[in-house]
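Renewal narrative, Specific Aim 1. Our central claim is that a sequence can be written position by position from structural information alone. The example that follows is taken directly from our test logs and has not been curated for this report. It begins with the structure tokens describing the chain, in the order in which they were read.
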């Protein structure tokens, strides 16, 4: 083998005229049973073309010119193409083949290119159609969700609007009641001042005053007694109170259940300042003018006629 490699560049002698008679006689004749490896090496180097292998190997070892997939029968020119086919198809059974893949002609190459372009265009069209269907489905879902959210938002806004309207209505009613109570108190004060002025004038002039005397009720007291005489008063569950302290300042406001005793009002007033003792709180009503006694602290606001609203005063505030 080393001899062959060393004389690779030597000219090849013409062996066509060599016959068996020209062989040297005796044991020095060239061994016709050359090693198969030497013959194969000569064939690969191009020294011997179409060499006939002797011995036991015979003519079965032909040169592999392609790779064939045993599962689908496709042939490939090289290993790279076969590996690509294996990755795409999942086939894993290949064998060598003596079939030579001839190069494509210009027409075949153009036709194959057109086929590939057609397949690619079909694949893109199919993908675009699937994407369009998916987009349409997603858009329908999004619109439905948006519609449900908008409907829910409108329902919440409608409920909030109703609650706000009801709250404003209640506030207006309370303000109207408060204004009516303040107006009634102002009218009572006017009447009381007029009566006092008339009484003082009559005393100065020495004339008798018809309404004088503790037994005769004042017009304000008579007006306050009329609703009770006409029938049972309306049942108000809560009572709104406005309390003015003798020390001045902004009045205290609170809302208590109508069945709460008057002592709860005193406790509320005492809780507003640490200097006020609950036992020292004395409450009075401006109209009709009245000062509540300690015995009335157990009576409810409804029993005392303070519903639905009343203005109270604290004429006395003793320190602890």
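The sequence written for that structure reads:
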């Amino acid at each position: 083998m080393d001899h062959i490699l060393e004389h690779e560049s030597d000219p090849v002698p013409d062996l066509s005229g060599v016959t068996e008679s020209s062989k040297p006689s005796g044991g020095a004749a060239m061994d016709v049973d050359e090693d198969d490896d030497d013959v194969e090496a000569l064939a690969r180097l191009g020294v011997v073309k179409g060499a006939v292998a002797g011995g036991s190997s015979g003519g079965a070892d032909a040169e592999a010119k392609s790779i064939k997939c045993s599962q689908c029968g496709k042939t490939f020119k090289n290993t790279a193409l076969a590996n690509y086919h294996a990755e795409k198809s999942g086939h894993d059974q290949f064998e060598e083949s003596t079939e030579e893949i001839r190069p494509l002609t210009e027409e075949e190459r153009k036709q194959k290119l057109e086929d590939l372009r057609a397949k690619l265009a079909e694949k893109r069209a199919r993908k675009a159609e699937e994407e369009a269907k998916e987009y349409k489905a997603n858009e329908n879902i999004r619109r439905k969700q948006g519609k449900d959210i908008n409907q829910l938002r409108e329902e919440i806004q409608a409920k909030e609007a109703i609650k706000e309207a009801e709250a404003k209505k209640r506030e207006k009613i309370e303000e109207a009641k408060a204004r009516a109570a303040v107006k009634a108190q102002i009218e009572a004060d006017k009447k009381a001042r007029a009566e006092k002025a008339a009484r003082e004038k009559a005393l100065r002039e020495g004339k008798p005053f018809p309404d004088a005397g503790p037994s005769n009720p004042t017009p304000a007291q008579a007006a306050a007694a009329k609703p009770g005489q006409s029938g049972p008063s309306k049942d108000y569950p809560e009572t709104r109170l406005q309390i003015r302290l003798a020390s001045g300042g902004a009045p205290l406001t609170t809302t208590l259940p109508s069945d709460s005793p008057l002592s709860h009002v005193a406790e509320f007033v005492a809780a507003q300042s640490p200097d006020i003792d609950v036992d020292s709180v004395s409450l009075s009503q401006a109209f009709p003018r009245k000062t509540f006694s300690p015995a009335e602290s157990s009576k409810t606001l409804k029993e005392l006629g303070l519903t639905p609203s009343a203005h109270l005063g604290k004429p006395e505030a003793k320190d602890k």
